[in-house]
Every structure is written in structure tokens, then in C-alpha cells.
Design goal:
This protein is an alpha/beta fold and 221 residues long. It is built from 6 helices and 7 strands. It is globular and about 50 Å long.
């Protein structure tokens, strides 16, 4: 396993204004309930994933600096260099990437925030299944988890690689923070499975609720 080297805390802080400007000029991005995100202490933001802009949008509109786990294939060329400069963490999705999870753990242990798309790949964003990585780091660090609903980043009827029209309304809706609670006497593998189920249920419920409450307004220009 490659040694985990966490990004410097200032990197994500420096990069946030770039995302903020992007989503307040090219798009009409807005954040709901940002006050729900704890401003101090370890926090894991878990979000649904339907389109390319999900990560940059949450990164730019979150109320505190966040280091996201980003697929390692994105870390090439200028874009990859930029991701590293703003404190993002590469992850190999083809295996249980212990180096990436250890890096995320280090960020959390020093009181930082980590962003994870627990579905792993872009899809419908309904959170029908999740990988275990987010629950693993939350259990290990006792970090609070904030479910995040991302809406508007996928053009209606479009694919996962498409971009929404310029000046579209994009929305990041932060849910209530919680901690996974699993009986410590439960064996490790079962404890991780149960924690992942708690996380999935909380995120899926928040996404459904947010779509009902906010979805219709995304189509008003």
C-alpha cells in the first residue's frame, strides 16, 4: 500500500473561491441549509452522484473546505494538476483503495471535512446502493455525516457525462448531520454493512425529500 499523504489543509480552502465564482456566474448555483454543516470537527459529506458537475458544485458551495475522493482517472493533465492543487484525493475505484481511505482518515483526524460519493459511479442519483468506504472512515474517526442532495446537474434525458445548459439553476441541499450507530459487539464486517445501510437510508431519504421540495423550481428560469 502506498503511503497516505493528506493534502495540506490550505489547498481546499484556496480552491473554494474558484468553484464559488464558477457556479455564481456560468450557472445559478445555490446552497440550502448550509448551517447544518458543522463548522468544526471531522465531517463526511456524502452526496448522490448523477453528473460530472456534482463534485465541483458541492466543493464550491459547501460552507467549509472539503477534500473529495475523486476517481484516479481524472488526475491527468492540467485538470488533474488542478485537482491536486485544491486538495482533492485520488481513489482507485476498481479495488478497495486503502491508501485513499487512509488519506481521508488523516484529513478527518486533524478535524477536516471529506466529501464522498458513496454510490461510486454516476447514475440516476437515487442512491440505490453504496460502497462501504464512507461508512468505514466515519466509523474509524467518529466523524459526523452530512447527507447532501445535488439537483440540476444532469440535463433532463441526458447522460451522466453531459453538462446542464449555462445559467441553469443548480442546487446543493445539505441535510441534518448524524453519526452511524452500530452495536460495538457486532463483528467488524457486519458492523460495516449495518453502518453502510444506515448511511444509504439517510442519504436516499434526504435526496427523495429534496427532489419533492425543490425539484420543480429547478425548471423555472
Amino acid at each position: 500500500m502506498t503511503e497516505a499523504v493528506a493534502p495540506h489543509p490550505d489547498r481546499a480552502r484556496i480552491g473554494r473561491p474558484i468553484g464559488t465564482v464558477l457556479f455564481h456566474t456560468l450557472y445559478r448555483g445555490s446552497a440550502l441549509h448550509a448551517e447544518r454543516v458543522p463548522r468544526q470537527g471531522p465531517v463526511v459529506l456524502v452526496a448522490n452522484h448523477a453528473a460530472f458537475l456534482d463534485g465541483p458544485l458541492v466543493f464550491g458551495l459547501a460552507p467549509r473546505p472539503v477534500s473529495f475522493l475523486v476517481k484516479q482517472e481524472a488526475f491527468t493533465g492540467f485538470f488533474g494538476w488542478t485537482l491536486r492543487q485544491v486538495g482533492q484525493i485520488p481513489i482507485d475505484r476498481s479495488v478497495g483503495d486503502r491508501t485513499a481511505l487512509a488519506t481521508a482518515t488523516t484529513v478527518l483526524e486533524r478535524g477536516g471535512a471529506v466529501g464522498i460519493f458513496p454510490e461510486g459511479n454516476r447514475g440516476a442519483g437515487e442512491v440505490e446502493q453504496v460502497n462501504h468506504g464512507a461508512a468505514w472512515v466515519a466509523l474509524r474517526t467518529r466523524a459526523r455525516i452530512v447527507p447532501v442532495a445535488v439537483l440540476g446537474t444532469r440535463r433532463p434525458g441526458g447522460g451522466t457525462s453531459g453538462w446542464p445548459p449555462l445559467r441553469s439553476r443548480l442546487l446543493v441541499d445539505f441535510g441534518e448531520p448524524f453519526q452511524v450507530g452500530v452495536d460495538p459487539s457486532v463483528p467488524g464486517r457486519d458492523r460495516l454493512r449495518l453502518a453502510s445501510e444506515q448511511l444509504r437510508d439517510a442519504l436516499a431519504s434526504h435526496v427523495r425529500r429534496s427532489r419533492v421540495e425543490n425539484g420543480p423550481s429547478l425548471h423555472v428560469h
